[in-house]
Design brief:
Elements: E1 6-13, H1 15-21, H2 25-38, E2 42-50, H3 62-72, E3 78-81, H4 84-87, H5 91-103, E4 107-110, H6 120-153, E5 168-171, E6 178-181, H7 186-199, H8 202-213, H9 219-227, H10 248-267, E7 278-279, E8 288-293, E9 301-306, H11 308-311, E10 322-323, H12 324-349, H13 352-377, H14 383-405, H15 412-418, H16 423-427, H17 432-442, E11 443-448, E12 454-458
Parallel strand pairs: 1-2, 1-3, 3-4, 7-11
Antiparallel strand pairs: 5-6, 8-9, 9-10, 11-12
Helix pairs in contact: 7-8, 13-14
Length: about 450
């Protein structure tokens, strides 16, 4: 049984090949199984990339990726394929994968073609075969691109409904195909443009759409809808390609709004004072900073921290944001008092008497272990009882030594702040970067307490 070769059967078929040549999955599977049984191979698994062209990116051939993972974990000794073109039609991709196979000493065989990579002539023949296959594939790709360009110019879709954005569908067959509005998604698509028209905000559009239609769309999906020319009937610069949802003028106006908001955010970088320090009191998630300007009244920056789980996905009940200005004022007013209370509690827990008590307990447990060993060696205790007790004693000893090894917190940095009566006045003169550095030096995290105040967790 130790000499049995474990094989993985790799099958690939593109949609076009299956339709044109009949290279079905079932026919390949049957041939590979027959070949493996004839050679007394042990089949470990089947790896089937359906609807994947040989020109597909390696990352898109999921089963090939799974096959390589099994190669790396030594589950497979050999890979069986039907023909070389099922494997690759690209010389560079082939050698990239071959390097992995060589590293883990895994080889491959074709059931209906013969290759010998152990000789220079065999490797030359393989390179020539792959180069020819790649050239054929390139020519096919060029023909397909030419065909697609011709179809687009004649306003025929080159894809199916799955490739279309929300609101559209493909009907008809072959040359009679056309893109039409999807009646099941027409209302929600119209509402996306209507709400954005009213709010000029992608985020508000997202929240209202998700709430109204009980959806879980992401921000980027709504943005892509608003930015896709197909919604005014244009595809690949061919106008009147399909029935529009909005006019070209409205589409261009939407792009100006989106672009202006992007400029507004990137034009002025804002340094959040409490970045990484504010946590949601409901779900414990770190809260993200969010800033905006209200140009209609002033150029004031409004900064808040909010729980992302509520803002985008409604997975948290906490709808209360934390206003940066109010949080900063609360800390300035309460920080020194909270710090003094923290130091007092630390001094109580880090007293010499308590550390001495831990050392006393450690010595006591060690004495028990010595006595237990002596009893067991003298034959006055059976092995099972001994192992149970020694395990408990060693676990207790480990916990005590961990507590003893904990480095006492240095209180000097806190004392220096408390002794400086003007520290908060100095703080007010700092820029945001140095303010953040100040809080990060002493605070591990800040949480809302649900009543308008905050809980501080010092370092």
């Amino acid at each position: 049984m130790n000499n049995v070769i474990k094989v993985g059967l790799y099958i690939r078929v593109s949609t076009e090949e299956q339709a044109k040549h009949g290279y079905s999955i079932d026919s390949q599977r049957s041939r590979l199984m027959e070949y493996s049984n004839d050679h007394k191979y042990k089949i470990v698994d089947y790896y089937i990339d359906e609807g994947k062209s040989a020109r597909s990116k390696l990352s898109n051939r999921k089963e090939l990726s799974r096959l390589l993972e099994d190669v790396k974990t030594n589950k497979i000794d050999r890979i069986i394929i039907w023909r070389l073109d099922r494997w690759f039609r690209n010389v560079a991709d082939y050698y990239r994968i071959q390097d992995v196979l060589d590293k883990y000493h895994v080889d491959w065989e074709c059931t209906d073609e013969e290759y010998n990579t152990s000789t220079s002539n065999g490797r030359l023949y393989l390179n020539i075969k792959l180069s020819i296959a790649q050239n054929e594939s390139d020519q096919t790709s060029d023909r397909i691109k030419f065909n697609f360009d011709r179809m687009v110019k004649n306003k025929h879709p080159i894809f199916g409904t799955k490739s279309l954005p929300i609101g559209y569908m493909v009907i008809g067959e072959k040359a009679k195909k056309q893109i039409v509005k999807n009646p099941d998604e027409e209302n929600i698509t119209n509402d996306i443009f209507k709400i954005f028209r009213e709010t000029s905000s992608i985020r508000k559009t997202l929240l209202k759409i998700n709430e109204k239609y009980n959806q879980e769309y992401q921000y980027q999906r709504i943005k892509k809808v608003l930015s896709n020319p197909i919604f005014y009937g244009c595809y690949r610069d061919i106008e009147d390609f399909c029935e529009p949802y909005i006019s070209k003028d409205e589409f261009n106006k939407n792009q100006e709004i989106i672009k202006s908001k992007n400029v507004k955010w990137s034009d002025k970088h804002y340094d959040y004072i409490f970045s990484g320090l504010v946590f949601c009191y409901k779900c414990g998630c770190r809260m993200a900073g969010n800033s905006s300007r209200r140009y209609s009244t002033s150029r004031t920056m409004y900064v808040n921290y909010r729980c992302n789980k509520n803002g985008l996905h409604k997975l948290c009940e906490n709808r209360n944001g934390v206003n940066e200005r109010l949080l900063e004022q609360w800390l300035v007013d309460n920080f020194l008092v909270k710090m003094q209370n923290y130091i007092t509690s630390l001094e109580n827990t880090q007293s010499d008497s308590q550390l001495d008590n831990v050392e006393y307990k450690i010595n006591k447990v060690k004495t028990k272990i010595d006595r237990l060993n002596e009893v067991y060696i003298n034959g006055n205790m059976n092995k099972e009882k001994y192992e149970n007790q020694i395990f408990n004693y060693k676990s207790e000893l480990k916990d005590l030594e961990t507590n003893l090894d904990k480095k006492p917190i240095d209180l000097k940095k806190y004392d220096s702040i408390l002794k400086n009566a003007n520290c908060m006045d100095i703080y007010q003169k700092l820029d945001n970067v140095h303010k953040r550095a100040f809080w990060s030096e002493y605070i591990n995290k800040i949480e809302q307490d649900g009543d308008g105040g905050f809980n501080i967790f010092f370092k």
